[in-house]
């Protein structure tokens, strides 16, 4: 092998005997990239590095190119996270005639924990044996050689142009690294970036060959991102929290400064800041017998101004609020109340009866958000002392809320967030999004979701106006509400964003009339992609900005990215860099720091206090570094781009995102196993359609198979709608692999449409409904009593269905009536009823 051997990297993924071709992230998706377009970048080696390369290589008895190969393998490991790397060595075909094309496939199993010198010896031994692979007898060759010889990526390495090919070039006393790459997939900046990584890691390895590979640096910490979101005229950044300042302190100051401005408006009414301050003070007085520092108060409210009033009222007592979604079944709400030992339930008046059924001895406090109460507030124990808000003991470290997420152990997790952190997150969000008194902010997320925190507090701590809007309105009506509100900031999940913009035409004037006041769109909660960026550029005015970000419930605001036309042509939209006050770190599977790809770890005081009454689960996710810094392991896998921005890759654990909802399969599986007819349960995700769907597989606990329909009803009584599987499939037994573990690949795909009972649509109205139904769901037919959700639909698609029925048949159907029985027969009956009226 010559000293100028190049190192080629396989690109497309393939598997054989555990070996995997390199899956290198690219700047442009492979399906849309053009034909191979060569690019070349060179980087000279400093004279001292060249001398040290020869010295270390000579001491180890290897060619300098093998030392470079070892460093390059370590760099590829950092970029891909793969310990197994299938590379190709470009060899002299005269010296190695067995290779034919002069490319030797080489399988390396890198050990990041091992010293570089040891890995160098292993790479040298593997390279020395590589020329025997082409002639290896598949029956007698060592297993590793058989794996490489038969690997589907080996032929690609020989025949296809590689994504990247590195070579050590020498001449006239100089040396350098040369990277040839596919410029249709990788940008020049990425190629230069990777080449620099190799030079940096090689230098560190040559300086100390005894250091473990994982400790060899490839780059410095990227500089902090300069946030360049334009500010509206007259914007003044909110003052940072003062020493000891509390969440309620800031609210009271904001309410006093903007007393006559509208604070919140919703279906049931409107409150200005003075009215919001008075009604929350009055409600807090009523609550103080049951609330107070160290206590928890449940909040059972619909998506209206009552939820806003209730949250601030509980905070003003010093207690923490626990939001409950009245759309969820009583069984789940009862479990959540028992979990946190709530002292009382604050509720909308129309939910008082239901709250009483759930209370089990707890005090019920109905809200009256339209009654601001007297203008002067006094404490119950003093006729002269004014009520200034929360008790002094409810300071920044006291809890603001406990927000439940799905639990991996079957028990929902209640995230504990402090008041100081809520204030810090809200002020950071307000500063970055440029929120101020002139802004009109829709509240689309319910108070039971962490996404609501940024809008609720970021708005009401800056003098802006909060508009409580139902995101499940048909898209045209939702746009009308946004236009009527004069919305300037739109924060939602990509799912809601797609619902809102999905039926917009190309008419720019129409966009201006419906969404022309929006200056910034903020996406979060699930992955956003190229199609979302294109929708944004099509639907919103040229002066609008798109912000994509990442923020788990355990740390509301972590990273943000200002997206633009420069992001077109890539894959997923980046989630950006860390926001002010938050530090991040990428760690590998062993928890060791890594620079380019790994699990996202959030550091700083803004992470939540842990999970309520689950110390073991808390200890697994939260911790304290040796320097005293708190951290939270998010479970999110990310990679870093050449510009420093982070890109979301998926989850380390089995957690699932469905329409913006975070789901732990363990909770659903535990509920299923709690049914007397179920022995084992496994949850998977069906990805055969653009919208992911949950599928559960169960085995019988008795001599009779479980009834899938009964299990569906059982889950609907226990779990929120988004967590109920689309299909429950009963199996005699779960398929197992050779090691005795579940073989998920062997689980049978569920039928798209199970056998329906009932007649085919017969009347003209029934057939018209069925036609639209099939078009929305992309299915060939629908029976009269088919259930829309069971047929594969979701709440967003149901809204699309109703909108299209209104367009085609001229009848507007009530969503709540449809949800009670979402069938063709029900919809046809309601349409005919409306036509008779």
Strand content: 15-25%
Structurally, the number of domains stands at 5
What is the β-strand count? 35
User: Which class best fits the helix and strand makeup?
Assistant: alpha+beta
* CATH architectural category of the largest domain: 3-Layer(aba) Sandwich
CATH superfamily of the largest domain: ANL, N-terminal domain
Q: Helical percent range? A: 25-40%
How far the N terminus sits from the C terminus, by CA atoms, comes to 88 Å
Count of helix runs: 24
Q: Which CATH class of the largest domain applies here?
A: Alpha Beta
* Strand order within the widest beta sheet: 4-8-7-1-5-6
CATH topology of the largest domain: Rossmann fold
Radius of gyration: 30 Å
Q: What form results from the Cα inertia axes?
A: globular
Unreliable segments of 5+ consecutive residues: 8-20, 92-101, 133-154, 375-389, 505-510
Average pLDDT: 83
What kind of sheet is the major sheet? Answer: 6 strands, antiparallel
Keywords: Phosphopantetheine, Phosphoprotein
Region (Disordered): 18-44, 363-396, 741-764
Domain Carrier: 760-835
Protein name: Amino acid adenylation domain-containing protein
């Amino acid at each position: 092998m010559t000293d100028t051997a190049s190192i080629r990297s396989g690109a497309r993924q393939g598997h054989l005997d555990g070996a995997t071709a390199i899956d290198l992230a690219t700047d442009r998706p492979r399906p849309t990239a053009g034909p191979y377009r060569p690019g070349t970048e060179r980087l000279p080696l400093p004279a001292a590095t060249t001398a040290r390369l020869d010295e270390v290589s000579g001491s180890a008895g290897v060619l300098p190119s093998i030392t470079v190969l070892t460093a390059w393998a370590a760099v590829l490991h950092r970029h891909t996270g793969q310990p197994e790397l299938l590379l190709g060595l470009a060899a002299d075909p005269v010296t190695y005639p067995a290779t034919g094309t002069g490319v030797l496939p080489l399988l390396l199993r890198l050990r990041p924990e091992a010293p570089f010198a040891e890995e160098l010896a292993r790479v040298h031994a593997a390279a020395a044996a590589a020329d025997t692979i082409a002639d290896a007898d598949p029956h007698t060759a060592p297993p590793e050689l058989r794996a490489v010889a038969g690997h589907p990526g080996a032929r690609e390495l020989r025949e296809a142009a590689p994504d990247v090919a590195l070579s050590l070039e020498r001449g006239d006393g100089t040396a350098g690294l040369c990277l040839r790459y596919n410029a249709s997939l990788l940008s020049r900046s990425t190629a230069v970036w990777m080449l620099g990584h190799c030079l940096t890691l090689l230098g560190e390895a040559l300086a100390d060959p005894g250091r473990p590979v994982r400790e060899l640096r490839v780059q410095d910490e990227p500089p902090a991102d300069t946030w360049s979101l334009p500010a509206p005229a007259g914007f003044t950044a909110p003052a940072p929290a003062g020493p000891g300042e509390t969440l309620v302190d800031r609210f009271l100051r904001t309410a006093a400064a903007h007393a006559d401005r509208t604070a919140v408006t919703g279906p049931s009414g409107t409150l200005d800041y003075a009215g919001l301050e008075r009604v929350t003070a009055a409600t807090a007085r009523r609550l103080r017998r049951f609330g107070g520092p160290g206590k928890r108060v449940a909040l059972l409210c619909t998506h209206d101004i009552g939820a806003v009033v209730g949250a601030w009222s509980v905070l003003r007592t010093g207690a923490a609020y626990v939001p409950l979604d009245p759309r969820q079944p009583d069984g789940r709400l009862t479990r959540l109340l028992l979990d946190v030992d709530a002292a009382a339930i604050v509720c909308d008046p129309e939910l008082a009866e239901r709250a009483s059924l759930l209370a089990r001895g707890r005090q019920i406090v109905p809200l009256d958000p339209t009654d601001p109460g007297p203008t002067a507030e006094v404490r119950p124990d003093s006729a002269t002392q004014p009520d200034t808000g929360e008790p002094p003991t409810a300071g920044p470290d006291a809890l603001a809320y406990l927000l439940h997420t799905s639990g991996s152990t079957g028990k929902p997790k209640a995230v504990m967030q402090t008041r100081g952190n809520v204030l810090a997150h809200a002020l950071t969000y307000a500063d970055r999004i440029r929120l101020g008194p002139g802004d009109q902010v829709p509240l689309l997320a319910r108070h039971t979701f962490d996404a609501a925190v940024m809008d609720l507090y970021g708005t009401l701590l800056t003098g802006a106006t909060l508009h409580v809007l139902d995101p499940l309105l048909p898209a045209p009506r939702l746009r009308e509400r946004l236009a009527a509100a004069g919305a300037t900031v739109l924060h939602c999940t990509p799912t809601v964003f797609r619902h809102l913009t999905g039926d917009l035409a190309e008419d720019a004037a129409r966009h201006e009339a419906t969404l022309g006041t929006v200056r910034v769109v903020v996406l979060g909660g699930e992955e956003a992609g190229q199609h979302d960026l294109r929708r944004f550029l099509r639907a919103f005015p040229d002066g609008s900005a798109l912000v994509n970000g990442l923020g788990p419930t355990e740390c509301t605001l972590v990273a943000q990215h200002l997206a633009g036309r420069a992001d077109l042509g890539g894959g997923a939209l980046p989630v950006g860099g860390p926001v002010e006050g938050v530090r991040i770190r990428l760690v590998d599977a062993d928890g060791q720091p890594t620079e380019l790809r790994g699990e996202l770890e959030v550091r700083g005081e803004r992470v939540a206090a842990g999970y309520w009454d689950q110390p073991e689960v808390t200890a697994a996710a939260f911790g304290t570094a040796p320097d005293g810094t708190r951290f939270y392991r998010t479970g999110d896998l990310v990679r870093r781009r050449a510009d420093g921005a982070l890109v979301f890759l998926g989850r380390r654990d089995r957690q699932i995102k469905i329409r913006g909802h975070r789901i732990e399969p363990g909770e659903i599986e535990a509920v299923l196993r709690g049914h007397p007819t179920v022995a084992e349960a496994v949850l998977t995700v069906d990805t055969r359609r653009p919208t992911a769907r949950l599928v559960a597989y169960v085995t019988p606990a008795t001599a009779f198979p479980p009834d899938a329909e009964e299990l569906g009803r059982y889950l609907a009584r226990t779990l929120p709608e988004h967590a109920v599987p689309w299909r429950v499939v009963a199996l005699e037994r779960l398929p197992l692999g050779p090691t005795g573990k579940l073989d998920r690949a062997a689980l049978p795909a569920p039928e798209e449409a199970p056998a329906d009972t009932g007649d085919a649509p017969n009347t003209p109205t029934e057939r018209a409904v069925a036609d639209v139904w099939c078009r929305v769901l992309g299915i060939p037919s629908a029976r009269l009593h088919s259930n829309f959700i069971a047929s594969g639909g979701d709440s967003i698609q149901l809204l699309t269905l109703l909108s299209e029925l209104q367009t085609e048949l001229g009848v507007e159907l009530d969503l709540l009536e449809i949800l009670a029985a979402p069938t063709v027969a029900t919809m046809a009956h309601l349409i005919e009823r409306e036509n008779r009226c």
